[in-house]
Amino acid sequence: MALIEIKNLTKTFGPTTAVDHVSLDIIKGETLGLVGESGSGKSTLARLILKLLHSDAGTIIYGSELERLRRDCQLVFQDPQTSLNPRIRVGEAIAEPILINQLKPKAEAKARVLELLGLVKLPLNYVRRYPHELSGGERQRVGIARALASSPKFLVLDEPVSALDVSIQVDILQLLKELKERLKLTYLFIAHDLQVIGYMSDRIAVMKEGQIVELGPPAEILATPHHPYTQKLLASTLKI
Asked: Given pLDDT bands bounded at 50, 70 and 90, which one contains residue 240?
């Protein structure tokens, strides 16, 4: 069952077509990997889905489970350093979406914050720390906790590990997999690395110059890619 149906979606910025008549379904409970080089349109497509940008043409149909877009669909950023206010403690940052969406009274929000810290495997005393006191991996865990604070059903993960050291990347990817199963989430996972996408995804969509040029299961995309652009991406990944 499709959680989100995208039909002929188009977005231009001046003479540049960032998203070019994209049609795509995101299935409930899956991780759809969206891969492509910088400038291929991945992040623009994600922001269109989240209604952070308005499309020029096309439609997005949300399944009945996505009742409130701001609450039920959340975004995890590439660099948590830029998404966390350096003057606000970790506990306040995680509590903010709970209070804004009036999900719990202020007196009960702290318990939910502690629960979320436990979910992302951070010590509970981190509620009083500031972002600069945390490592990059710890800040990303806070970013994930903040995204989960409103109990979303769908997460867009926009290059969530590309700014982290390789050893930390593995820990965050494993955490995201565990959270998906535990909380019954649906993911759109954006990256430029086919190996990371292959590890995380149930299906892979390859994006080039605003278009989806290949779509299929990881075993097919990674073993026998059909489009020359996918072959190029795979060759580039294997050289690293």
From this structure: very low
Q: What's the mean pLDDT when you consider all of the chain?
A: 92
- For 170, how many CA atoms within 13 A lie in the half-sphere containing its CB? 2
Domains of the chain: 1-66+153-167+176-240 (3.40.50.300), 80-151 (no CATH)
Q: CA 178, 151, 68: angle at the middle one, nearest 5? A: 135
pLDDT tier for residue 102 given thresholds of 50, 70 and 90:
confident
68-88 average pLDDT score: 83
